[in-house]
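Ticket opened by: R.M.
Priority: normal
Category: complex prediction / small molecule

The reporter submitted a protein together with fe (ii) ion and asked that the result be attached to this ticket for the collaborator who will pick it up next week. Submitted input follows.
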Amino acid sequence: MFFNTPYGAYHAREIPPPDDELTRVGPGTPCGEYLRRFWQPVAFARDLKDVPLRLRILGEDLVLFRDGGGRVGLLQLHCAHRGTSLEYGLVGERGIRCCYHGWVFDVDGRVLETPGEPAGSRLKDSLCQGAYPTLDFRGMIFAYMGPPDRRPGFPIYDTFDLPGYRLEPAARFTLPCNWLQVKDNSMDPVHTAFLHARSSGYQFTAAFGALPELEWRETSFGMIYVATRRVGDHVWVRVCDFMPPNVHQFTRELEEAVGEKTGSRPVIIRWAVPIDDTQTVNFEFAQIDDRWHLSPDAITRPGFGQSGDRPYAERQRRPGDYDAQSSQRPIAIHALEHLASTDKGVIMLRRIVRDGIRDVAAGRDPKGVLRGRAGVIRTLTQDTVLRIPPESDAAAERRLLRETGRNVVAGG
Ligand code: FES
Ligand SMILES: [Fe+2]
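Result attached by the on-call engineer:
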């Protein structure tokens, strides 16, 4: 429905509710249960020091720690005895000891000690602290928060190992808004030409300012966009992947498109994990080329405009992703949107998510859940630059760009 009354704000003040099915993430909600069917990053291993780490993930309050034996535990925050927060617990050789009465919990939630109870007490054998399984994968700690009997395999993407690059846990940054609008952005490549180039100065390279020819396609593991641009005598094809439910990967924004290359993959892989309905934390892995000589700080710092740490006036003058995404309201209202031709990817992404949510509700595995020996997942993210002179008329040029993009995806 298009509202088309000039000076008509008076008639357009009603704000409908958000799409609860796609945006609510708490325990028992359809989307919350869907997201819980996948391994989700909850912290970087580097953040686990000698004290416990208090976390909020998918609307649940939790505590993360690594005990003296090197094992990682993710427990419900409040002690099973009388609720004291385990963020004040003492991390031991084995498990964590609640500060209040000294009960000790193992990483799987079993009670190891109840020191105030009489000798021979069976109390400790009769209860557990709530715990979730974890996995330390290359310095990123993942948790599985779904039903225990539905725990999936851990997906291995081909971009975890790339010749010439080193995979590093990179930036983490929080946005004060719902997870879905953070992810919508990943299949919205036209914003790279506006937000990151024309609207607020070139945040990446000048090549990003060329309006791309766009296509989106569903793949066996998720979906891709193909953004093909004319840059002088070259055609630059940028492909990015979305892997449901909340992962995407893209090439580092370095491409100048001045020389030929095929299948260049300086990727960043990013998970958008809901803290709750209106806060989202992004975790990144980055492939690092040692020839870039990046300092550790440069590896872990969020990219320009990704976080809210710049002064407001500066963010107004030179807005970035943080500003564009979080200002769509705490939870974007889909019923008020006017989706256009460049939003096909957003529509496709939401459809994949909605199908997954309904699969889970119907007792099926959603797309992206792995069972058995899945092998390495072949993804398509890349920059390919080819020397192809421009066509003389606009229609032929668009056709050329589109076909070049398709050939790159087809591996031609
Ligand atoms: S509240 Fe934790 S041991 Fe008593
Ligand atoms: Fe962006």
